[in-house]
Amino acid sequence: MAHIRRHPKAKGRWQVRYLNPSDQERAKNFARKSDAEKFLVTIETDKLRGDWVDPRLSKITLEEWTERWWAATSHLKVYTRDGYRSLLRVHVFPRFAPAPLGSIQPVDIREWLSDLDRSGLSASRIRQAYFLLSQILRSAVESGYLAKSPCVGVKLPRMQIPEMRFLTAEQVDMLAFTIRCPFGVLINTLTHAGLRWGEAVALRRGRCELLRSRLHVVESLSETSEGLMFGPTKTFQRRTVVIPGFLRDLLAEHLLTAVEPEEDALVFTSPGGEPLRRGNFSRRLWRPTLEAVGLDLRPHDLRHTCAALLVAEGHTPRPCRPILAFLDPSHHGPVWHLFPSDAEELAHPLDATHRQVSANTGRLVSPSEAVELAAS
User: Fold this and answer.
1) Among 165, 121, 175, 147, residue whose Cα is nearest residue 363
2) Is residue 305 within 8 Å of residue 172, measured between CB atoms?
3) Could you tell me where the beta strands, DSSP code E, fall in the chain?
4) 20 to 30 Å CA-CA from 355: which of 49, 82, 120, 205?
5) Is residue 262 helix, strand or coil?
6) What gap in Å lies between CA 191 and CA 136, rounded to an integer?
């Protein structure tokens, strides 16, 4: 049992002796008996509530605890870990690195967020920094270093929903026709297969099942501090995408004329045969082409365009989710899947729309013919 006694060596001081939840004996000294009595009541109450934490553990600094937490994040993608490092270095550690865990109060969190907001940092970045700090402090609670997290009752800045940009079928056709050959095939793949950039540039010959008009999306390419890395898709899910007939034909000719014969050969590469880097592609091809055709968008907007084209053909957004690998509305369930016949129902209108646009513009759809047109 916890008790108070006169300090055996320091005259005029009082000592509280108590057991922690692991039955280890601890002692704390006070100048006044009343302070010792208050401390004794507090620790006994906290122990009964399950809120008691060894004061020595809560003295570890946030930076020291983060090092321990970091060692348990090896399961995260390298790209994600890079992002966490940046947030810690730039936004979290400058404020909290030397602070003992037990000293961080909710008001400190709110003041920190206000300072970030006044600095002009975007709402998205502020929320990312907060959620990372909250995750680190929650792990300290789970490990018994804190009684409760100070990240409670905090009002975060509202996210500004970015404007969604969509292209018409005619604009997609113009963009694919204008960009340097054979990257028009990539433009059509991003748009009409609904692939993310990393998924498209990680696509391999052996995963193009063109006799059945299918692409098997298995991996993604990321640019990290450790270089280019192939890994699982963003959702860690494998999926099969049914593609329109015209895209099947484009890819068939592209595989025949521009892709190495090995099964693991990348379908889309740089002119030197290396994996495509987003920055290089944007600087050398994407931006000059956008200027030439008078458009302003990101490569990812082509994925949005895929959904927009399907909706324009009379499909509601929900059936379009599977082809785009969106999660269910609760964002917690598995990816929605289609029966093959349903997936083909989505591919057919995309094919019909493209062929109609090609007929109206008089543009031919094969890469070789596009080269002839560009040269004429």
Assistant:
1) 175
2) yes
3) 3-6, 14-19, 25-30, 208-209, 214-217, 220-224, 227-231, 239-242
4) 205
5) coil
6) 39
Pairing state of beta strands 239-242 and 214-217?
A: antiparallel
Distance of CA 315 to the CA centre of its chain: 28
Topology adopted by domain 62-142: DNA polymerase; domain 1 (1.10.150)
Report CA-CA distances (Å) from 81 to 46, 77, 127. 36, 6, 17
Q: How far apart are CA 177 and CA 282, in angstroms?
A: 17
Average pLDDT over residues 292-316: 79
Cis peptide before 182 (omega within 30 of 0): yes
Which one-letter amino acid corresponds to residue 25?
E
Measured CA to CA, the distance from residue 62 to residue 133 in angstroms comes to: 9
How many C-beta atoms lie closer than 10 Å to residue 117's C-beta?
A: 14
Count CA within 13 A, CB hemisphere, residue 238: 7
Sheet containing 25-30: which strands, arranged edge to edge?
Answer: 3-6, 14-19, 25-30
Backbone dihedral angles phi then psi of residue 245, each to the nearest 5 degrees? -60, -40
Look-up: residue for tokens 């050959």? Answer: 181
Between CA 52 and CA 54 the distance in angstroms is 7
Q: What percent of the chain has pLDDT over 90?
A: 41
Q: Is 217 helix (H, G, I), strand (E, B) or coil?
A: strand
Q: Give pLDDT tens digits for 168-223.
A: 888 888 999 999 989 999 999 999 888 999 999 999 999 999 999 999 999 999 88
pTM above 0.70, yes or no: no
**Cβ partners under 8 Å of residue 160, min gap 6:** 123
What are the tokens at 258?
A: 């521009």
Backbone angles phi, psi at 223, to 5 degrees: -100, 115
Please return the burial class of 121, using the count of CB atoms within 10 Å of its CB with bins 0-12, 13-18 and 19+.
middle
Written as six digits, the tokens of 96 are 């909290």
Residues with Cβ within 8 Å of 280's Cβ and at least 6 positions away in sequence, in order, are 270
What letter does residue 61 receive in the DSSP assignment? B
CATH class of 169-375: mainly alpha
**pLDDT at residue 113 in the model:** 95
